[in-house]
Amino acid sequence: MGQKVKLSTIADSLGLSTATVSLALRDSPLVADATREKIKEQAQTLGYIYNRRAASLRTSRSGIIGVVVHDIMNPFYAEILRAIEGELDRNRQTFILSNHYDSVEKQRNFIETLLQLGGDGVIMSPAIGTPKRDIALAEENGMPAILIARSVDEVDVPIYRGDDAYGIALATNHLIGLGHSCIAMVGGTDQTSTGRHRYQGYVNALQKANIEVDPDLRIPGPRTKQAGFEAAVNFLSLPQKPTAAVCWNDLVAIGLMNGIARAGLVPGKDISVTGYDDLEEASIATPSLTTVWNGQAEVGRMAARALLDKLNGSSDADGLHLIRPEMRIRQSTSPLKQA
Amino acid sequence: MGQKVKLSTIADSLGLSTATVSLALRDSPLVADATREKIKEQAQTLGYIYNRRAASLRTSRSGIIGVVVHDIMNPFYAEILRAIEGELDRNRQTFILSNHYDSVEKQRNFIETLLQLGGDGVIMSPAIGTPKRDIALAEENGMPAILIARSVDEVDVPIYRGDDAYGIALATNHLIGLGHSCIAMVGGTDQTSTGRHRYQGYVNALQKANIEVDPDLRIPGPRTKQAGFEAAVNFLSLPQKPTAAVCWNDLVAIGLMNGIARAGLVPGKDISVTGYDDLEEASIATPSLTTVWNGQAEVGRMAARALLDKLNGSSDADGLHLIRPEMRIRQSTSPLKQA
DNA sequence: CTGAAAGCGCTTACAG
DNA sequence: CTGAAAGCGCTTACAG
């Protein structure tokens, strides 16, 4: 430890005032070059550590940005976070990460902690059931919020996410184009906006192709590889014998393919499977996964940019910004085999 | 925004002093019950937000703990982080996460930022080439450090990691026991302590079984699924035609199996493959992965505990703590086929 | 170009 | 059981 080196330590040792030292260390042009150099050198040799708490107490800007998502370990969020990190790093912001695991309470605790630390802003993929007052809590205390991946009704902050209904329709149409008509939808939940949009997109595509929608072909729930794997049993025992599955995301699709393979069938040949997100992993799965690119990196980058812009005074990013998904056709889908 | 509600706002509105309000909000027994209740109610209605920067400036304790690892998106670290998170949450500490991507500079920046924020401690999986002075930087400024997963020479802080040499020998012996003698080692690097220990463990096991060690059977480098997938080409074209692969970790093993399958061979039957870590994913891979449990959750939990204990004054955890790995036998390994 | 002084919002002895 | 006052380490007008 030793005794703390602070501005006044440097100032005293050089016979200057703390005001001058403070200005010099932040490269103010008010300080003479020679003085500045001398001060910086001294700071270095004394091992001075800038106290951001003290500074931010004074300036009420902390350089801290919070990010809270369902689960940072989920590769979907991980890819978004990587993009956010890149953007914030470039702007020398510290970011604090948290999972809410879809607990509104955990999410609120995080927002409160962030406020206590004087966070400059927050990027969040809201937990299921997030009330708008939780977002208002941040905004009203001067901490702007940006939403990613999911919407919250009646909230007018910037939102960045993929166009889910459009994207899932791409996948469904792809399968219909290959001749499939008995197509199951595996995974997702009506409790999130994303879940509702994706199911709706699937239903729309079927109807447009005059294929009857059978609610029993929906296996709701799975959102992870493990759950997709376990869902294979249900999927394979559906009385309608689907020949294809539109999956909630890549994780579910990969899990489902593993489950199908375990049962002795060949995914991509016996059963066509589509994913969603186009994770890095999708292209190295076996078979490589036909999926829908969902622009994780775009979402992360744009959300971070929007927040930084907002902190710098501009605020024209409010409202919904949809990323347009794109089809990625690989080996996990193939034309319907004639019986 | 409105004007900020602070202690004095509450104090003034109730005709009390800030000292009393401060004590009441932190449940000091010095304050009369009735007064405390009144104060808490008022804080609630005014929407008071505790200013931790101000408090920590005074107390020099921030409730912030930093965690920096190679890559939080790597499931190995993700599983450790999950355990750390659980332990810190329980103790109402905020944790700040960062990747260093094996950049010593990025890691040092993080440590400095943490010091500036008044971090109470740091848990780190040190970047390749971390000099001991970077750890000293934290320690000397009153921020204790705990190492996980990797060691740094000549540093006497607590270290929690698996016993890599022992663990990889378990995997190697398992394959030898199945009759394999031409066993490749895929992935890892001599630049980390972990990499050196694992290769050494592999070499030791072979020598003990009187199997000649062929350096060409080592394919160094891969540490990700993608890299493991790509390494399959090299692996399959080795002139010695190995019948088994000891992989650096589960990710490499799963990638390698995918690559092997892509080449028309059946992993687990034609080629035996072992992983390392026993990620959640290992058991749902196809074939399910024979691997070595590496105690990620243990490491995370113990490291967090050690740090919290240290912050509370005890410090008997210095030095190396090895978690003993265990074999998990599944479907990706099988007896050597007789030619 | 540099310095003296106030203040950011808390907590903590110290009095009473 | 409650209050007055100092101080944590900065930054920012304001003077000179």
Please describe what this structure looks like.
Chains A, B: This is LacI family DNA-binding transcriptional regulator. Chains A, B: Keywords: DNA-binding, Repressor, Transcription, Transcription regulation. Chains A, B: Pfam families: LacI, Peripla_BP_3. 2 copies of one chain form a homodimer. By secondary structure, chain A is of the alpha/beta class. Chain A is built from 12 helices and 12 strands. Chain A has 3 domains: 7-50, Orthogonal Bundle (434 Repressor (Amino-terminal Domain)); 62-162 and 296-324, Rossmann fold (3-Layer(aba) Sandwich); 164-293, 3-Layer(aba) Sandwich (Rossmann fold). Helices cover 43% and strands 14% of the residues of chain A. In chain A, the strands form 3 sheets. A 6-stranded parallel sheet of chain A has the order 2-1-3-4-5-11, sandwiched between helices. A 4-stranded parallel sheet of chain A has the order 7-6-8-9, with helices on both faces. A two-stranded antiparallel ribbon of chain A has the order 10-12. Chain A is elongated. The N and C termini of chain A lie far apart (78 Å). The relative contact order of chain A is 0.12. The mean pLDDT of chain A is 94. The interface between A and B is large, with 47 and 47 residues. The first copy, chain A, binds a DNA duplex (16 and 16 nucleotides) through helix 2 and helix 4.
